[in-house]
Prior knowledge:
The chain is mainly alpha-helical and 81 residues long. It is 98% helix and 0% strand. The N and C termini lie far apart (119 Å).
Amino acid sequence: LEQMISDLKEKESYHQQEIHQLNQTINDASQQEIKYKTEIENYTQMIGHLSEQESQFKMEIANLEQMISDLKEKESYHQQE
């Protein structure tokens, strides 16, 4: 009977160790998940910022193209005088 109790305590200790290792693995995975979610959030914000910049640059290009067109018209008008 004492041997059975000793064996059970040994198995319990082994299982407690396994549980501790599994909990550590879960904790590590949770930390990685938080890290990846933070990275995804940062990249999403960067993409949003870059999209805003792209829109702004497209407007600036359109304005410059309009200015060039206007200057060409003025040049053409002055050459006809």
